[in-house]
Amino acid sequence: MPLFDYSLLLTGKYHDMLVAGLLLSLQLLAASLVLALPIALVVALLRLSPLAPLRWLGFAYVEAIRNIPLLAHMLFWYFGAPELLPEGIKQWLYAGHIEAYSAIIALALYTAAFMAEDIRSGIRAIPTVQFEAGRALGFGFLGTMRRVILPQALRVTVPPLISQTLSLWKNTSIATVIGVAELMYQAGQVESATFRSFESFAFASAAYLTVSLAITGLATWYHHRFPVRTI
Amino acid sequence: MLEIINDYWVYFLIGQYPNGPLGELVLTLLLASCGLVLALPLGIVLGLARVSPWRWLRWPVTGLVFVVRGLPLLMVIFWAYFFLPSVTGVKTDQFTTMLIALVIFDAAYLAEIVRAGIQGLPRGQMETARALGLGYGRAMRLVVLPQALRSMLPSLVNQFVSTIKETSLGYIIGLAEVSFIATQINTQVFTKPAQIYLILGGTYFILCFGLSRFAYWLERRLARRGMSAADPISVPKVSA
């Protein structure tokens, strides 16, 4: 038995399992990111809204989500939340891939809270006179945001959003606790089937690291391509 | 929800202690505190290496920090759980395994906090200290680090909040911390999962929200005294 068995990773059943896990992890990343961005934008705008109750709503969302570990969110959405639904929907949910949906909901809501804060501080970095000028030109609150503030704020916001994406990528691994067959889960399965823990974890680590470094590279590229303008 | 709290609160707080192993919320806090206390010195050493003028020291440590930060904590825990015993031949218990994983993981993040704290100081501090005749090591230890550590305080409290949240991953290796026990209570009660996990979430929330508010307060206080690294041009006020 060789010390490091490459063949296990390159071909055969276990190779397929690990690759399927990697693909599912990437799908989790994409689905949660697509859901999280609009939620984050809405929450950021809530936090900046001129109406106090809406501001409080945004604050409560961000603090309630950020101060609870993702694991607890996942457990709640997987074990807790479906029980509260009516019987019919529950049956339908349990027939499908409920664990993947729970994981996506938990990941999206969790990431949105962090992204909302990044978007908010990006918007706050734009001088208030810009906002006042927009209002003076006759745009409403949302119109000013969309046409004047957000296009400028996005330049400052994208780098922190990319680093939140990196966290999201690493957080997809936590979905393993509710039995989503993603990369971490498959690495565990291969390990328990073959007892080759070194090979399977090396594959998973290398895969996580590759995607992480790609995301970091994207951030560096963006930083060079669109340097922050000082006004 | 109230009856669950009423029936299980002692179990929830300290586990089976004195009749069995200490667990639960106390274990969560103990793990987070030990993790941060042990990771801090390592983080400072790594952070110093990251800003050191010697390439042979800076590059490997930068690589290490990048690798650890690019991996999920769960991966680090798996390595500590499966790989460490087979290399060292010592079978560690779940608490020690989790502690080792947390220390490695947190040290990499603390290294970045330390680096940011040092680089946030005006360059003149280091130059002045060197001009006064202090060596690199003494200038770092006597002039730069004390100021940098002070401006890092809020980040450290936030790191403690993250560490508390990270301990929840001990769940996966069967460490009897608060998430694990919540799941056990869930299998005993069986009919009220939503309530049990809401209580779990609420427990974390009270702890972490309190601490993060404290960090926020500390940040404002340090900023008012002009000791924040976020404000690089601030100089100590000299009373006339």
Give a verbal description of the structure.
The complex is a heterodimer of chains A (231) and B (240). In chain A, helix 3 crosses helix 6 (98-124), helix 8 runs antiparallel to helix 10 and helix 9 packs antiparallel against helix 10 (197-225). Chain A contains 10 helices and no strands. The model of chain A has no long low-confidence stretch (mean pLDDT 87). Chain A has helices spanning 6-10, 12-48, 52-66, 70-84, 87-95, 98-124, 128-136, 141-171, 183-194, 197-225. Chain A is flat and about 70 Å long. The longest helix of chain A has 37 residues, at 12-48. Chain A has 231 residues and is mostly helical. Chain B is built from 9 helices and no strands. Chain B has 240 residues and is mainly alpha-helical. The N and C termini of chain B lie far apart (62 Å). The chains are: A mainly alpha (231), B mainly alpha (240).
**How many helical elements of chain A?**
10
User: Into which percent range does the helicity of residues of chain A fall?
Assistant: over 70%
What is the helix content of chain B? Answer: over 70%
For the residues shown, what is the average pLDDT of chain A?
87
Strand content of chain B: under 5%
Strand-helix topology:
The complex is a heterodimer of chains A (231) and B (240).
Chain A: H1 6-10, H2 12-48, H3 52-66, H4 70-84, H5 87-95, H6 98-124, H7 128-136, H8 141-171, H9 183-194, H10 197-225
Helix pairs in contact in A: 2-3, 2-6, 2-9, 3-6, 4-6, 6-8, 7-8, 8-10, 9-10
Chain B: H1 2-14, H2 24-51, H3 55-70, H4 73-88, H5 94-120, H6 123-131, H7 136-167, H8 178-189, H9 193-224
Helix pairs in contact in B: 1-2, 1-8, 2-3, 2-5, 2-7, 2-8, 3-5, 4-5, 5-7, 6-7, 7-9, 8-9
